[in-house]
Amino acid sequence: MATLAARLRRWRRSEGAQGLLLVSPTLLYALLLLAAPLATIVAFSFWSQDYLTIDRSFTLENYREAWTEPLFRELMLRSLAISGAVTMVTVILAFPIAYFVSFHVAPERKALWIFLITIPFWTSYLIRVFLWKVILGYNGVLNSGLLGLGIIDEPLTFILYNANAVVITLAHAWAPFAILPIFVALEKIDRSLLEASRDLGETTVTTFLRVTLPLAMPGVVAAVLIVFIPTIGDYVTPRLVGGPNGLMIANMIQVQFMKLNNAPLGATLALSAMLIVGAISILFLWLNRRFLKVRQ
Amino acid sequence: MSAPLIELETVEKDYGEVLALAGVSAEIAAGEFFSLLGPSGCGKTTLLRTIAGFEDPTGGRVRIDGRDMEGVPANSRPTNMVFQSYAIFPHLSVGQNVGFGLRRKGLTKTEMARQVGEALEMVGLGGYEARASHALSGGQRQRVALARALIMKPKVLLLDEPLSALDKKLREQMQVELRKLQRQVGITFILVTHDQEEALIMSDRIAVMFDGQIAQLDSPQALYRRPVSRRVAEFIGVMNFIEAEVTAETGDRLTVDVAGLGAVDLSAEQCPGGGGGRGAAVGIRPETMTLLIDGETRSGRITEGSVEEVVYYGDMTYYDIRLDGVPAPVTISMRNLPGRAVLERGARARVAWDASAMVLFR
Predict the structure, then answer these.
(1) Which of A14, A58, B33, B101 is a good FRET partner for B231, with 20 to 30 A between their CA atoms?
(2) What's the ipTM?
(3) For chain A, how many structural domains are there in total?
(4) Option in B52, B91, B92 nearest A199 (CB)
């Protein structure tokens, strides 16, 4: 008994125990608010619902419906396409900004620039989406501006209430999340490596391709995942600026839960989306490792 | 000597607030091992980077092989550099690092592999091609950087303090190896270092730099034996300075009254810095003076004094000795030969010295 108490005391002083103690509030929080709801969702996906009553008998009917219904498939594919487009646009636009701040801004100004880049976060996400509506709308800032300048004769309609609007809005919202990891990766590059490449005969452009870009890849990969994974599940933006053809899978999940009283099918769709995103992310990481290894 | 490979003509670099290079002129011959030696901030690295093409001089001219380098970017110059941090590409293997610069030369894969293998062999890393570069030790990284630069067959190899990150033993070994390698490949090496010993060991000629200017450009021996100024003398090795006064000057002979030691007769060669005036100092190296033990005698001049400090190094003993009549103590180094006693602090000592070992600064 005494030895057990002693062992417990010793354990409490060990590094492992202190680490556990340190993360335990977060761990508890994560368990309660992440793992438990997730488990509930998994459970729901195997049940069925009739109006307000949940039938808890095991069934795979939801999965059959989720994976065969053409509407769901179309929404899922569209979500992937929109997310993919958002990710590409965001990362391609974020890279030059990160590059500029890392390579062309004086060291003492870099913190200020990063601070400025995060300014969009000062306003709520919802307000930013509404602002894009104002900018892109039929009588919006962009159209009236272009009309006023005589560049167009009638308002552009392909910029609001469709997938384009969703891409524009999400790309703007997620830009800082893409800029930061790329910036960090670029900051870590030893500048003498670039000089060494120049010294060995490479031009500025080939130095970028042979040294800067490969070394910045971890940041680019992080940016891709950070943008791609959450945008798949976004439902506010498609709802507000997407119009009927800009709706995504998350909107359907919401409809299943809230409007159609079919929580089990909603849960199944949510899980399916998660699995697909997870599979794509893993495939992406694997390809990347493979691709980088080939380059080595 | 044929036409110089590198000509520096009053090269200046003005950073606005600091004048890093204040008009440096020098000529470096093909096949020479040339060192830029100086304390940090003296402009030696700036000069090296100017030759490499990483810095544009704000004045003067750099010519390599007769060609003016103005406007020629680093990637088109016949120079290659070994960086202080070695700058080994972390995402590439050892072989890919070494072959990095060959890509533009349009070689076949097998020819490239052969050259990489040869270059690695040359620096003693044969068979390391597939190794990951991050798994290398400091000395190995240094060799990879060297192979990567030499494989380009540059006219000039620039080395920016390449040994400063290595520990003492390895550094000494690499100094000898580098020198051998330079003789073997016959390429002009320009080495930047703040380590005077390293410069003396490796170089054919050394430019000692202070404040963006070359204070003295000479062979290691001339630099050590005939420094032109007190500052150069102090920077290279240890030198004792004793106040002196020039009392007579006839032809190329000078009579100098040295405080405590009396009048000595020096040749004009012993005053490499030139200059006039009576007020002066003579410098004398620790190893040129001899401590006489147990009634030993010498034909030269002998002065008595007392031992103030003894520092025992194993192979050598360094004494600080206050010579009678000399204001400051002088440092004397003695080899610890068998049978030679080490004096105690406070002991009386007799010191033999020779005026021919003195250097006059006026």
Answers:
(1) B33
(2) 0.86
(3) 1
(4) B52
